[in-house]
What we know:
Layout: E1 9-15, H1 24-32, H2 49-56, E2 58-62, E3 67-70, H3 71-75, E4 80-84, E5 87-90
Antiparallel strand pairs: 1-2, 1-5, 2-3, 4-5
Bound molecules: iron/sulfur cluster.
Amino acid sequence: MAGELERKYDVKILSTEEKVKFPDALKEQLKELGLIDDKGKLKLKGVSPKMLIRMKQEYVKCPVLKDDIQFVQCFICPNFQSRVMGEVLCKGDPLK
Ligand code: SF4
């Protein structure tokens, strides 16, 4: 099933109704990447505010970290290749 694309996992994107809080470590990471502005607002290129609200409530059961990972964190993960039809194409390399 892996096809020609070099990836290991198709990870389903799940959604929660709960209000999701970003862990501080993730916030720091986003800040370093310049994805959070001075007011602490997340901004991703090409993603509308409406989409962002939805994205914040999405998560994946990450097969590498063996944990629930927020989609935003998954999005900036080195293993992230793309998002297709509600799934993340994940390279599946070990993460430190
Ligand atoms: S891209 Fe990263 S966070 Fe997302 S599922 Fe793969 S290893 Fe986990």
